Structure formats: C-alpha cells, structure tokens
Amino acid sequence: MTVSLLDVSTYLPGDPIGASYYAQFAESDALRDNVMFRAPRFRHHVGPDETAVDMVERATAGLVQRHGADVIAGVDVLITHTQLPDMPFYGGGGAMAHRLGMKPNWVLDLHNGGCAAFVLGMQVARQLLASGAGQTALIAVAQNAAGQVFDQPRVRRKAQAAVPGDGAAVGLVAVSERSPILDIECRTYGEFAGDMTIAVGPPRKWWQAGPGEGYIGFTESKITKVLARGNRQVPEVSYAVCDRIGVKPKDLDLLVTNQPNRVFLRNWREALELPKERHVDTFDECGNLFAAGIPINFDHAIAEGRLHAGDVVMMAAFAHAGDFAGAAAVRWGGR
C-alpha cells in the first residue's frame, strides 16, 4: 500500500521582527560570539494571546482552500507536536481535532521528535495508514516558544534568545500514489537525552515558583557536543534513506532540513554534496523554527516553484541535543 505526502500548509504569526529588537536588550554573554547564536535578520513571534491550537487552525486554512473542508473533517489520524503545550499536563491533539471539526480514530501527541517531529509524524502516519487504520492523516506542528519563553525580559538579554522564530504547519498524508513517501529512517540516541536542560537562577525544578526565568542551559562544552552530533546525524540518516531508495545524495532534487543556524545548514549540504540552490534556507527570514522548520521550508519551496512533479525531496533533521534524528524521502507529485 502506497502512502503519500499530498500537501503542506503553513502559518507565520505577526509581522517580521528584526535583529535590532534583540540588540536593544543584549547584555554581555560569554556565548554571544558562538556560531550557534548568530542571529537571523528576522523572525516571527506568536501573539500574546495566541494558542498552539489557534496557530494550527490558521496553518490548516491552505489545505481547506485546496482540498475542501470535508477532507480535513474526515481525517482518520491526527498527529501533533507542540514545542510549548498550552497546558503542561496534556498535548493539544484533542483541542485541535475539535477546532478543525474532526472525529479521528487516532489522536497522537508526539514530544520526543523535537525538531525532527514532522519526519517522525510521517513515519507514524505511514505505518498506521499502511496497516489499515484509515485513509488520511494530518500532521500538525506548532513552534511557539520564541515569543513566549525566549522573549521573557531576562531571557531576551541572552544570545540564544535572538535565534528562534515561531510558526506552524500541517501536512496531509493519505493512501495514494500521488506523492509517495519512498522511505523513512528514524533513530533514537537515548544516551544524549539528558543533555538538554532548563537553566534558572536560583536553581529549582521547572514547575516550581521562583524569581528567575527559565532558558536553555547551554555551555561551551554542550554546544561543542551538539554541533558534532548534528553535523554527523543528519547526513547519516539521509545517506541511509538514499542507499535504500537507490538515489545518490548529490542527485537529490531538494534538501529540506531544520535550521538551527547557518553553520549546520552549510555543513549538511556540503556533506550531501549539494549546491546551495538545492537546499531550502529561510533562516534569515524566520530564524530557528524547530519542528515547524521542515514543513514551512517545504511550503516555501513549492510556492517559489523550486519543486516539480517527479522530484525527489529529502527531509532531514536532528532534535534537542542530539537524542533523535530522522530523514524521509518523498517523490513529489505536485499540488
């Protein structure tokens, strides 16, 4: 049974926010000159009262316009990932299903996929649909931490705050031969799962009340490890998929990755021997979009006419401090 990624639709909240916004708050930071935190020219921030459910609903509008409300309402499997859940005790899948008028048989909230969550969602959707769980699946991802966590008064002074941007995306997956998912590789590196931490002063658990604001606990040592893992993992999973589908990496028509910083983007396309024009890069427009990066960049490529029917697209990413990575190849069938 062939399962396809039929379409994606995306949403960027608000007007672009320039680098000067963070420059006015910048303080001395030992990590400010690190390649991990060289700021993009622009990024978008979620609105002060905008929820992840709102973002996904707005992202879905393009699918409704192109495929009809009945296609969305009739989705059998809903798979979601939210960077910062609206409620800490449960994911947003139920509320998203209700807002979109769905009654799916399956609602799954994924957290471990991180920046590679869209690829993980494709893997889960493909397995479920191929096993007979339904005919269609919707993958919904929302990155909403930039305008909330990273824009807190004390956090936005740090170098790390200027890099993330917010956005949401949905992908429509179905039993179809139109845009077949050729192969997927997902790998879990559990030994690295504890390397991403929340830092707060004075120290406390993330859920405890206190005066300090939480942020990502980066150090020079951790950054060195993350750079090494990311540089290795994304090419590894991409090469594994290429080997199985019989396509050399340098012959891929398009590479779509997550985009933590410019260094990763350059290193990944060089590792796959691809020219810059065959690697989608919206970093200076959107910043680090975390899990929303792959589908938003994919949507940009389609809108810009960079993809044609029959093209092979590789989507690849790694998550957190390197505890997960995934790659998926699709033979694009056009909209």
Please tell me about this protein's structure.
- The protein has 335 residues and is of the alpha/beta class.
- It has two domains: 3-177, Peroxisomal Thiolase, Chain A, domain 1; 182-332, Peroxisomal Thiolase, Chain A, domain 1 (3-Layer(aba) Sandwich).
- It is 29% helix and 21% strand.
- It has nine helices and 13 strands.
- The protein has helices at residues 19-23, 52-67, 69-73, 93-99, 117-130, 220-245, 262-271, 283-286, 293-303; strands spanning 3-11, 17-18, 42-43, 77-82, 106-109, 136-143, 167-175, 181-188, 198-199, 215-216, 254-257, 312-319, 324-331.
- The strands form four sheets. The chain has a five-stranded mixed sheet with strand order 1-7-6-4-5, with helices on both faces. A four-stranded mixed sheet has the order 8-13-12-11, with helices on both faces. A two-stranded antiparallel sheet has the order 2-3.
- α6 (220-245) packs parallel to α7.
- The radius of gyration is 19 Å and the shape is globular.
- The chain starts with a strand and ends with a strand.
- The model has no long low-confidence stretch (mean pLDDT 96).
